[in-house]
Write a sequence for this structure.
C-alpha cells in the first residue's frame, strides 16, 4: 500500500483506497466541560483510576460523592465519555473504558 497519500492498491481481490484524514476534533468532543459550575451538594459519580480495568475496558466500581468533595483537582467528564489514562504506567497497562454511570456528570483523578 502507498504511504499516506491517496494511493490505491489491491489486497487479495479487494481494492483499497486511502482514507481521508481528519482531526480528532472533527469526529469527537475532546475534554468537554460540565456546562458550568455544579452546585456543591449535587451528587456526581467519582471514578478512581484503580477502578478502570485494563482487562475488560470497563469501570469496576464508582463512588457517589457530593461535588464539593471532588470539585478541585479532579478531571470532569460525562457519562458515555471514553476515559484514557494519561499517567504513563496506567496508559501502558491499557487503562481505558467507556463511562457508563449512574450520574450524567462525573469526576476522576487523572483520566
Amino acid at each position: 500500500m502507498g504511504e499516506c497519500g491517496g494511493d490505491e492498491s489491491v489486497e487479495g481481490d479487494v481494492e483499497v483506497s486511502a482514507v481521508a484524514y481528519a482531526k480528532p476534533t472533527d469526529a469527537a468532543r475532546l475534554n468537554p466541560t460540565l456546562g458550568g459550575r455544579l452546585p456543591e451538594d449535587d451528587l456526581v459519580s467519582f471514578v478512581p483510576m484503580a477502578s478502570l480495568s485494563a482487562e475488560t475496558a470497563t469501570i469496576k466500581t464508582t463512588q457517589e460523592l457530593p461535588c464539593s468533595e471532588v470539585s478541585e483537582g479532579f478531571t470532569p467528564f460525562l457519562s458515555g465519555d471514553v476515559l484514557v489514562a494519561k499517567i504513563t504506567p496506567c496508559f501502558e497497562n491499557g487503562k481505558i473504558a467507556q463511562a457508563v454511570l449512574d450520574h450524567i456528570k462525573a469526576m476522576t483523578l487523572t483520566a
About this structure: The two ends are 36 Å apart (CA to CA). The mean pLDDT is 77. Residues 105 and 111 are 14 Å apart (CA to CA). The domain at 31-108 is CATH 3.90.220.20 (Adenine-n6-DNA-methyltransferase TaqI; Chain A, domain 2).
